[in-house]
Amino acid sequence: MENHLADICASIQHRIITILTNKLVKASQETGITEICIAGGVSANSGLRKALEELGQQHGWNVYIPQFQYCTDNAGMIAMMAHYKYLAGAFSPPDTVPSPRAAFE
To answer: pTM score, two decimals?
Structure first.
């Protein structure tokens, strides 16, 4: 298996990209949305970037892909915010409802 690890990883990556792009094409067709953007750590994946560029040309989409320097890992940003909240003693009660739009206080 170790002799084929690179092939296995490449196959998994290809399949994940295929699944994501198939769903994106379907969503675009169903909604008519042609402005396509990716962000976060996954946007640094060269295979996904290439696939989106190709699909954009095929389907007439406007595809927005950030430069690599802006493709940061969202988990890292969340962890840093949690670190500062911890240092400030800003703890949430157990019944707090998660929100992607929560403000840092």
So the answer is: 0.68
